[in-house]
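[stage:ingest] chain + small molecule (zinc ion)
[stage:ingest] validated
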Amino acid sequence: MDCLFCKIAAGDIPSKKVYEDDKLIAFYDIEPKAPVHVLVIPKTHLAGVRDVTADNSTVVAHIFATIPQIAEKLGVSDYRIVTNNGADAGQTVQHLHFHLLAGRMLGEMG
Ligand code: AMP
Ligand code: ZN
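[stage:predict] done
[stage:export] tokens:
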């Protein structure tokens, strides 16, 4: 499948990795919107939140169970988790990913 984040998860495209286990990978966003901007993605391909079902949601639970450890590793206690679903929401990569943003006052949600 021609998916940028599947290629990053497979190691075929390099990334600046923060954390990895058998189900997920976390790496620095190439165009950071905050002093700390990391993407957390499942290794399995889901196009976005729209692909999450009762059967595959364990990976999403695993991502959220791991985010506190990733944040600790990054040295941040206050952070925002964002996921964009669909073009109108600003999704540009069609592989489920959670933005972890921190390191500045993040202000109100737009
Ligand atoms: P979204 O716009 O929510 O789909 O988020 C996609 C994010 O992926 C953007 O913040 C991009 O800066 C980021 N991005 C695109 N290509 C890469 C890459 N090769 N490595 C790291 N981050 C990337
Ligand atoms: Zn993918």
